[in-house]
Amino acid sequence: MKSRWKNYRASDYYDELITAKGTPRQVARPAVKLLGELPEDDLDARRAAAELAIREMGISFTVYSEAGNIDRAWPFDLIPRVITGREWTKVRRGLEQRSRALNLFINDVYNKQKIFADGIVPAETVLESSNFKEQCMGASPRFGVWAHICGSDLIRNRDGHFYVLEDNLRVPSGVSYMVENREITKRVLPEIFKDYSILPVDDYPSQLYRTLAALSPRDRKRPVIVVLTPGIYNSAYFEHAFLAQGMGAELVEGADLFVDDDDCVYMRTVDGPVRVDVIYRRIDEDFMDPEAFREDSVLGVAGLMRAWHGGNVAIANAPGSGVADDKVIYAFVPDMIRYYLNEKPLIRSVPTYLCMREKDREYVLENIGDLVVKPANESGGYGIMVGPHVDKATHRKFARLIEKDPRNYIAQPTLALSTAPTYIGDDIQPRHLDLRPFILQSRDTWVTPGGLTRVAMVEGSLVVNSSQGGGSKDTWIVEGRL
Amino acid sequence: MSMLSRVAERVYWMARYIERAEDTARLVAAYNHLIMDIPRGTQPGWEILVRILDADVVFDEWFKVRNEQNVLRLLIGEAEAPCSIPYAVQAARENVRTTRDVLPDEVWELVNELYLYSSEAAEKSVGRRNRQAYLEQIIQRTQVINGVLRSTLCRDHSYRFIKLGQLLERADMTSRIVDVGASDFLAREGLAEGIEHLLWGTLLKSLSALGAYRRLIEPQVEKNAAVDFVFMEPTFPRSVRFCIREIREELGQLTNNKDALRTIERIRRKLRSFEAINFDQPALHGYIDELQLLINDLHGAIAETWFLSSKG
Prior knowledge:
heterodimer; A: 482 residues; alpha+beta; Rossmann fold; Dna Ligase, domain 1; five-stranded mixed sheet; 14 helices; 23 strands; B: 312 residues; mainly alpha; 15 helices; globular
């Protein structure tokens, strides 16, 4: 093996490819061998080829900053993350179970609210959350499913087990990068596929189509599906276009749609209005319909909620789904699984302290230096405090924030995110990573084989979001014997 | 399958900008050739290109002196100037970026590569040394994009609006290229004397029309015959007449096409009576101006009928 790998020390975290003894894990062996045997200049050429492919394929995302919005090339690390099929099957079952329970919960919250009456979840934690949308009460989407697309963030802890960190039920993004990462690996490391049977990931758009088509209110062979985007300046615009194209659906902006007197949704085409059956919305529900939510929204479509309540159009994810995408509600998910499904949770959750509970709050304030504190409603890694990584002044600042608005904060133990070998300059070093699989649910449930692995490129950092300098890796679910 | 009005508008503009990039490159390349054939000492200025592209105002914003260097910097080197090649390519790319879902995958990749090339190589292609190679690259790459569109797009609305944009821009730019030869200053200064064959030969070449002209008309290029060819030749795909006829055909397949077809009839009437022999140079220049105004009206009618931005 070449020196770059020889010097690799997996530190004291769980490493995805290399054991504590410094030898490759069995499933990673052929990949590490191949990468290790490639001459350094060959490897560098392939890394350059990957970068060029990303630029030429125009895979990009937008970073919002004070200096203006920058379209950045997608950060990709050549070394794949490898997971065995056997292990993945367990994770997949856990995720399917979770998605079923979460959807039963959302449907319950907006209808009978049995879970409150039975004292499993305190009503006020839900009803006082800004994610609870009064406007959705009484709605009954098809199959009782509200969150049709869920992106759950998993991490692997020091004990080698996967834990769900959070469930993104509003407009989770990243799935296009999962598909493109595989595409890049195929282009620049074609030899490596000889030694593995890796579950393909490029099937996602057709699975998404199937999931959405099942929701159509009209019984047609080819329902009219649209992807509703806030537009070109959204950070995930690339993905919106990618998915629309993959499904053969129209990519629309608010101005392309209108709701007519018959409470149906139409799109403006060169041949006149065409009725829409299913809207895969990639805009926040608050901006979706100025009649029902924010009046000042220019991104949305007036009357959309009317059309949805009338059953004339399906919206995925249904408005209001975010009620289960809440870091406080997260703490109750294992209870929901037992309550609705009468099953034992198959995938672990992270122990969570709710600052709204007096006992939890006291514990959090006393141990704030050891904990990760998160606002209940932010996404994209914003507003998170990692106790051991910041100074006392920041601890005090967050303690004050918690005391002022306890409902809005939760805390969790600092997790030992697993690492994987990652190219850093000329060297290979361990970097922390997470994993975001996507769970689709309508008539049935489907989970992406693997998902998007995000890497914190800064040494020791746990922040993997691409908007904050994170990178990504191709993620392999490997079937059969090696 | 129908098409969103917004998408129709964007693919139309994508096609217009790609065609504009190609035709601007053709125009500059032709002039570049021409200038080298004109005897030293009597060389005309480069500002004629600025005038032909209606870029006087933009030029004055960026530069003071109208010399070769500045004109080429405006048309090649300044990605921010609305008349430059990199600007057109970037505008095309923005339009593709927002309509990727209706276009073949390769189109996005090719346009993106064209964008990277046109902006990265621009700076060093202003000077004479690399200029020609740059312009040839632009022409080649845009032709590849057009080829992919032709050979992979279904003949539905997306293809139709792409074709409308492309043909309309081409008719407009073809008339502008003729305007190089019709410009008053070449005649006034007697510069064209003795090199007229060369001049019109070069202009035909810039439209890839020289071979066809020689086969169909005569080997020696003569001014009036060349102008007639470029405007009126029914079999030549870059002639104004050809473009207008094809536009008319595409319009025929759209609903609500009355206004646009009426404008087409006005253009056809204007073309029908055309014969270069009846025009002296100032009159030809005036005729081209009027033709461009009509083409602009046609764009107005298309936008008014089918695009989102004019529906409010």
